[in-house]
Amino acid sequence: MSVSSRAVVELDDVSVRFTSGFGPARRSVQAMSGVSFDIAPGETLGLVGESGSGKSTTGAVVLGLQRPDRGVVRFEGAPLARSLRSRAGRIQAVLQHPRWAIDPRSSVLDAVLEPLLVHERRSRALEMRARDMLEAVGLPGSFEQRRPHQLSGGQLQRVSVARALVTHPAFVVFDEAVSALDVSVQAQILNLIHDLQHEHAFAALFISHDLAAVRYISHRVAVMRKGEIVELAPTAVFYDSPAHPYSRQLFQELSS
Predict the structure, then answer these.
(1) Residue limits of the ABC transporter domain (predicted)?
(2) I want to staple 231 with a disulfide (CB 3.0 to 4.6 A). Which of 69, 158, 205, 223 is the partner?
(3) Domains and CATH numbers, the chain
(4) What is the model's pTM?
């Protein structure tokens, strides 16, 4: 897979601090501290780290759902727009639990159509576009009118992938997108993501605690610890010889 050097997403010295409580009980947590990385078209950056390391906060920042306290986030060379509508469809996400993202009353076809209706009225052309994307993720016409409760976990995640890619995004965040699936289904979804990225050349941030999944899908790997990126390396280099002591520790913990 060819990867362009022009970055789709760039984080430059980004920090986020959360504060909770009042008075003596007031606490402050540094969720991100000086985080910098970029992701090129057609590239997947795998982001790994233990729970609470700042991975999901990083995902929220690049999606524009969390404003940083310091630093700059750029999308396609410009500061990330504050308006969700202005970037609708250009940045998308596939989350761990697809049932949270899909209206249980919606048909599969309507669920995939929904992102297209932000800027356009429903039409036969849009419906065909949604059908083509469902076909691309392995859900043929017989699935169109099914409801979420009639689908398996893997099929629901295929719908989520179709919803994310139907708008032809430049950037997709996969946040623990396969962690709730059986091992055999995980492999199917990872292969699907790999093939669709090869076809559409979107940039991707793949957030996961699953080192095997990250190794398969990612071009580079970033290791996060207590809000900081402690290692960033090409996948082959990282898995052959992780440089940071925490990376080696993480290998032992997540592989056991």
Answers:
(1) 9-251
(2) 223
(3) 39-57+82-255 (3.40.50.300)
(4) 0.91
